[in-house]
Design brief:
Order of helices and strands: HHHHHHHHH
Largest sheet: none
Shape: elongated
Radius of gyration: 23 Å
Amino acid sequence: LYAYHYTTLPAPAGTSSSLVSIIFELKIPFVLGLIGSAASLSLFVVPAALLGLAVCILLVYLGARGHIKRNPLIWYCLLFLILTVFGITGIRTDVGPGQLLASRYAIYSALFLIFAWFAVVEEFLADSQVRLIDSGLYVGTMLAVIIFSLAMDFSGARAVHERHDTLVAAMSAFEQPAASDPTPSPAPAVKLRLDQDPAQSFNVRARRELIKSMQRGIYKPPRR
């Protein structure tokens, strides 16, 4: 059901489309990076891989303690996530870590953290007679969550500002093109694949759509 009408990319020459072969060819750092992609900073794979490794160690420990028998539903969900991570990593590894750490995949990392926390609560906190405020595990986790959230919010805000500045600069170049660049694009530069027609590149299409929007009155460039 998950793969119904799923759009796949053509496999590179010399590679196999077999799921079994994909699993055996997986690159562990990329697998860990995808599991911990919630901690990716500027598409940098090291902090994401460290978080992914920590999550995997925690899950192995909880499984060894027998939590998998006490609440198998959590582990069925984790199995689904792991198989999905294997598929994503097998397909996207060849295009670099940036694809694996893209924001659209961060939901998988977030779900790993959520289910891991469910298991921790059930294993160590649910039956405890100690108040949560007096639990070092709970207080430490909450502090880590707050620090983590603030750090990621700061990183995200900086990325938004950088993207805004890039867009403003590109629009300025589009509205007032230099003589050496008569057809500037309002989009950041995107590298073309070797088999891609330059006339169909993202930059060319973005410029064409923007001009069409201006002609139809949908968009009006700001007056200077």
